[in-house]
Amino acid sequence: MGLFFLALFLMVVSATSADEAAFIGVNIGTSLSDMPDPTQVVALLKAQQIRHVRLYDTDRAMLLALANTGIHVIVTVPNDQLLAIGQSNATAANWVSRNILPHVPATNITAISVGSEVLTTLPNAAPILISAMNFIHSALVASNLDSRIKVSTPHSSSIILDSFPPSQAFFNRSWDPVMVPLLKFLQSTNSFFMLNVYPYYDYMQANGAIPLDYALFRPLLPTKEAVDLNTLLHYNNVFDAIVDAAYFAMSYLNFTNVPITVTESGWPSKGDSSERDATLENANTYNSNLIRHVLNNTGTPKHPGIAVSTYIYELYNEDLRSGPISEKNWGLFDANGVPVYILHLTGSGTVLANDTTNRTYCVAREGADKKMLQAALDWACGPGRVDCSPLLQGQTCYEPDNVFAHASYAFDAYYLRMAMGDGTCNFNGVATITTTDPSHGSCIFPGSTSSLPSPSLHRPTPRYLVAVPNLSALKISIYAL
């Protein structure tokens, strides 16, 4: 199977009705010590053709950066605001007025997530969850936005009890006073049931009862597939079994026409000593197979051909998250926009945003003014936040010791950091785009395919950001050009 540069893409296939399309989206968390600014985030989304995102708040700068991009956006009422909104229609209306109305229609907000996993993480707020959803919806109705912006709330799959066989699954009965009116609300507003599906956790908690291949979508012999003896449906992956368990649990409460959207799913690429299956290879395998599974419009055994739109968790590794090492390593990219691993997507039949056979680089323009090159280099290594330590004397890209070579390295690093977005290779006219890899000798440029990680069972060599005590060390006034 060939390897292609990481790309997420728009999926257009039939879903629950002829005018709907299933898709792959991505969650954007912000617990990074070096969080890219919103324009950089959007540049990465565009470069990777990611057309659906979920935010965990309503950050104004991010929503402004997403304006006029056409990217579909789910925004979130944070859990800590749920109580106030659920107790006051006026507070909900004010929330919509402050966080939604200033951004539509320029920013394509398509749904509001009211809280996140409220029943399992904030059970005391459960009684006001439906009120909060109704109040938010009423505010949208008052603004004539209810037809374009849906209201729902994500649930942990742990609210489903006895999840295998799926046909016997049911929601925790203690939540019936919440779940029944919630499903009525979703049904009456033509919204969808948001479900977070993490086969990684099911696998980890099963103490060997769930085979790793079953969790990772790897091909299974028919004799190894799990069979629901009540329906005779065969399950060859955990993801489908959980989604169908949710469908059966809803039907148990007499709701059979509420579609499911998976708002979170993924696999960590690194873990501590107790998380031996949180590896680059497993993360690559899971997300690659998940994307292919959704894109193939396979559906689930209960609903074949009805694709389940899914948001991958998550865009960036979040190094500030607490908990085990795995909590910091769910991302597809690092903070610089470099893929953590290369997805196996050959044969998916989709258009990839960044095929490595057609890579571009940003280098210094031939004949450019040396003083302007110097100024651009200083900016890239300073305000541009490029790691220019490889240009220091004795490092891999110090030679050739001239402004043209050093500026080319810094320009390309910035270009990659900005996800090769439009206008990010200019530097006042002294930079240009080329398809020729400018790497030379031991100096591998950041955008070179040689510098990208390849999927393997081995950990990548750690990368360190070297502090430069004095930016003047990178000045080129001593260069003999």
UniProtKB/TrEMBL annotation:
Domain of life: Eukaryota
Signal peptide, first to last residue: 1-18
Keywords: Disulfide bond, Glycosidase, Hydrolase, Signal
Entry keyword Disulfide bond: yes
SUPFAM superfamilies: (Trans)glycosidases
Domain X8: 360-445
UniProt keyword Ligase, yes or no: no
InterPro entries in the cross-refs: GH, Glyco_hydro_17, Glyco_hydro_17_plant, X8
Family: Belongs to the glycosyl hydrolase 17 family.
Name of this chain's protein: X8 domain-containing protein
